[in-house]
Amino acid sequence: MKKFGKIVLAGGSGYLGKVLAKHYSDLAIEVVILSRHQIACSANIRCEIWDAKTKGSWVDSLVGADMLINLCGKNVNCRYNEQNKAEIIASRVIPTNLLNTVVSEMQQPPKVWINVTSATIYRHAEDCPQTEANGEIGYGFSIEVCKQWEASFFEVATPKTRKVALRMGIVFGRADGAFPRLLNLVKFGLGGKQGDGKQMVSWVHEQDAALCTQWILENDTMEGVINCTAPNVVSNENLMQNIRNAYGISFGLPCPTWMLSLGAWLIGTETELILKSRWVKPQVLLDSGFKFQHPELPAAVRDLLSLRV
What we know:
By secondary structure, this protein is an alpha/beta fold.
C-alpha cells in the first residue's frame, strides 16, 4: 500500500533529484520530474518538460500533489564572474517565482512545497553552531544568492500550501556529489587537509536528506526555515582522515591555501566552496523528533563505501 499519491520534483534530473525519485518511487503512486530535457524514467516515475520560466502543460502535474520539491539551480562550482553570477541567481529565483505564481492560483495545489536552498547562507563559523533561530547570516556572493532565493520563495502567500526552505548541507552519496570527488583525492594520495583543515563541514548522508523531506511531509506543523545537516559536524581535517581510514590509506598529502587558489583558478571554481567553515545544526529537525540514520561521520563513510562496521 502506497503512503502517498503524487510527489513532484522540479528540476529533479540532477543527483539529489535522482536520490529523491528513487526514495519516493517505493512510497508514492507517482513521481513526476519537471525537467528541461527528456530523461529516462521507469516504473512509476515520469518526466514532464518545462523551461522553468513559463506556464505550460506541466502545471497539471502539480494538481493535488502531496508534495512539491524544488531543486532548480545552476551548479555553483564555477568561477564567480558576472555572467555566472547572474545565471546562478536567475536559475534559482525565476523558477521559484514561476512556481509561486502557479501554486498561488491553483484550486488544488500541492499540500507541501519544499524549496531546497543552502546551509551556506550562514556566516563562516568556527566558534559555534548556526541554528535556525540563532544563526547569523553571512556576507558575500553565495550568501546573497541564498537571501534572494529565500526572499522570492516566501514573498508570495500560499494559504493552501505549507512552505519549507530546506537549508541543505553538503550531501554525501555513493554515486555523485562531493563524496566521490573527495574519495578520488584519497585514492590518488591527495586526501590530506585542505587549507588549515580547521574549517567545519556540515554534511548529510543522502538517505537522511531524503528521509527528512518525508518527515516534513508527514508532520504538518513543520514550516519556514529548516536546516538539513547531520547533527555531528566535523572539521575538514577530520573529514579527510575518516575517508582515508575507511578506505585503508594512512597518508594523504595536504593542500595548502595557495595551492587551492591556484587549483581553483585552473579548474574554474572558487576556493570558498572548500575553505568556508560551515557549522550548521539541524535544531528544528532534532526538536521535532527526527532520527538521523547516519548521525556520525565514520559510520556514514563506511556505509557509503559499503564496508562493514
